Amino acid sequence: MKPSDVFWPAPAKLNLMLRVTGRRSDGYHLLQTVFQFLERADRLRFDVRSDGRISCRPAIPGVSDENNLAIMAARLLQEHCNCPLGVDIQIEKCLPMGGGLGGGSSNAATTLVVLNRLWGLNLSPNALAELGLQLGADIPIFVHGKAAWAEGVGEKLQFIDPPEPWYLVLSPGCHVSTAEIFCDSQLTRDAETITIRDFSAGQRANTCQNLVASRYPEVSRALSWLSQFSEGRLTGTGACVFAEFESRQQAEDALGQIPADMTGFVSQGMNRSPLYMKLEKFNGAWPSG
Predict the structure, then answer these.
(1) GHMP kinase N-terminal domain: from which residue to which, for each copy (predicted)?
(2) What is this structure's pTM?
């Protein structure tokens, strides 16, 4: 099978911890967080075109081409490299949109990484990450494809290897606006900084969690429901929440008891992106450029 025939994973991420520690003069918030991937992923396929046109078909419901991060990433890469080629992108959505799992950012990163090879551009991961940062602070972690401790606005990465438990992830059925949460006067913006050792010792709070739960009853209810099995935690600014389990069976047993008006899935944490695990299978099969 050729690389152009393959559906490439764009995995979800969890924020295993999130602390808002300050705010820059340009309004961006300073963070400490830990990113880990999930095996659960959207799937993307890329058909290279010779006419330079970039499209996503079928379109994602509710997302215009102008707001589709995969298209934006392809256009940015094309322009940066003055590449004459184009692409038709097909996206199979498996991740809830606007849930804090990074689906759009992951779609963009997978687009950058795979088109870099299909178009024969040979940019380094660091160069791709710098391009991706222009579109979103979460994109570099997906480009690098390794679990990481992150600071700054999320772009300063130190790769780590936390445990890889099984997670039950719930989508409460509401959309949380990250912009609104970060603009909320009640948001704690001066959380004390911690170290990787502190995180490993159990300091895994999300300073956005109480605020989001107070603003969104659906999130509060999902967190409360999860707490009967394991500690419920918010990923990013939500709306998705998660709890960790020692085994897949334990997580599946909890999922089997989920209320009818909630949706969820079980997935294992991964310190290496499934995108790169799949890329390894195609060594030597890429265009030479």
Answers:
(1) 68-146
(2) 0.95
Give φ, ψ of 81 to 5 degrees. Answer: -100, 0
Q: Residues 138, 161, 190, 198: which is the catalytic one? A: 138
Q: In 46-85, which positions are buried (b, 16+ CB within 10 angstroms) versus exposed (e)?
A: beeeeeeebbbeeebeebeeeebbbbbbbbbbbebbebeb
C-alpha 240: how far from chain center? 12
Place of tokens 């024969």: 120
- The per-residue pLDDT for range 211-254, each reduced to its tens digit, is 999 999 999 999 999 999 999 999 999 999 999 999 999 999 99
Active-site annotation holder among 2, 5, 13, 42? 13
Say if strands 166-171 and 241-245 run parallel, antiparallel, or are unpaired: antiparallel
Q: Confirm whether 13 is a catalytic residue.
A: yes
Binding-site annotation: residue ranges for ATP: 96-106
